[in-house]
Amino acid sequence: MTDFIFMLTRDDRTVDDAHDLVDVVADAGVTHIGFKDIGLPWAELGSLARQIKDRGVTSYLEVVSVTPEDEVRSIRSALDLGVDYVLGGTHPETGVEILSGSGVKYYPFVGEVVGHPSVLAGTAAEIVESAKRVTDLDGVHGIDLLAYRFDGDVEHLVGDVVAAIDVPVIAAGSVDRADRVRSLQLAGADAFTVGTALIDGTFEIEAPSKSLRDLARAVLELQ
Length: 223
Prior knowledge:
Elements: E1 3-7, E2 9-10, E3 13-14, H1 18-28, E4 32-36, H2 42-54, E5 58-63, H3 68-81, E6 85-88, H4 92-99, E7 105-107, E8 112-114, E9 119-121, H5 124-135, E10 143-145, H6 154-164, E11 169-171, H7 178-187, E12 191-194, H8 196-199, H9 212-222
Parallel strand pairs: 1-4, 1-12, 4-5, 5-6, 6-7, 10-11, 11-12
Antiparallel strand pairs: 2-3, 8-9
Helix pairs in contact: 1-9, 3-4, 5-6, 6-7
């Protein structure tokens, strides 16, 4: 089964009404919920993390800060937030050092990740080699692959990365239709994230309505 992680985000930023959306998607049956380190003050992110925990679902912080200093701050803050997973970040050597012994699962980005919203640059071969290097680090439990932020054959990229490493692959970014979910499943991704397309009601899938609840339930059925 390929896990569905709902992100409380739009355009790589945690949305202002994230607290309201947690209950909507949790009531719909979503069991994996995450947010970004950009968009809300840290005090509000702490409250959000507690709310997710109180609903009994798995929590994720995705680090999309673009400076090394902000990335370090965000990963350290993840320990205070009490999230289950830290995704993203582009300095995995630093990340594993900060999170060592914490019990938090760490899935850094692979490849050359640039800008905000994040884009995956480089060739498929370079991304595969990056995945190998990153997952050789002790303390890396999986990878965060910006599959649909890559300008190339996404299904082949995901398949090549999955075949090259022995840890789970989460596909993140621009998963905005059922066909993309199915492609990721065929390529062997272990999980995928969706945020903007569900929150804005633009996710392309058969559902009773374009409400967040109905769309989330429809995506769950793809698993």
